[in-house]
Amino acid sequence: MVAYWDSSALVALLIEEEKSVLARKLKGQTSQILTWVLTPVEVYSALCRLEKEGALSLNDFQKCYEVWQTIENGLIFVKDIEAVKNISYRLLRLHSLKAADSFQLASAILSKQANEGFPFITFDQRLEEAALKEGFQIKNLNMVKPYFSARVLK
To answer: What pTM was computed for the model?
Structure first.
């Protein structure tokens, strides 16, 4: 299946957290991952923050980043910044989203307009709620509260 993945779901592929098992299962079912062109910056930011907070050692950070580079090479990026910006304005008026989350949802909406329907995969509850209201099929990712641990996925 083709699916849109936001940064929260992609980070779960890199570090061990409660939703990592589900993320790996969904990745195994996904033939193509669509995402926003700046998602790699969000993922890198999450890894840097975890390393600075002591949840990842420098060695684990480097391992995660190497795995991320492999995953990143297989992603399909939504790159139409002007269209995403315009859709984001509407989303920010309608939903309680952060700007970066509005870009994620806007790029998924833009992709959905160009392709047949596909699921939206996220671990962010507000983003999930907004995606549902925008007509996306959601894989039930918010079954458990997310957390980060220091273990790196092998």
So the answer is: 0.87
